[in-house]
Amino acid sequence: MGMTETIDQQIKRCPACKTEIAVTADRCPNCQRDLRNWFLRHPFWVLFGLAALAFILYGMTV
Asked: 3-state SS of 36-49?
């Protein structure tokens, strides 16, 4: 019983093709979909947004 629960917890389904994949996978081996969250997939936009926010906040205090 314990072994089955451990295996089930380490497998998930790809949201695009429904293939069973490891929970730690960054990409689906079947359809190659990127499974990382939005912030890890778009580092440029994250840094741009943080810089814009800092610029806005700095401009409000001066």
From this structure: CCHHHHCHHHHHHH
Tens place of pLDDT per residue across the chain (62 aa): 455 555 557 999 999 999 999 999 999 999 999 999 999 999 999 999 999 999 999 987 75
- What DSSP character marks residue 10? T
Backbone phi and psi for residue 9, each to the nearest 5 degrees, phi listed first: -75, -20
Do 29 and 12 form a contact (C-beta atoms < 8 A)?
A: no
The rounded distance, in Å, linking the Cα atoms of 27 and 14 is: 9
pTM recorded for the entire structure: 0.59
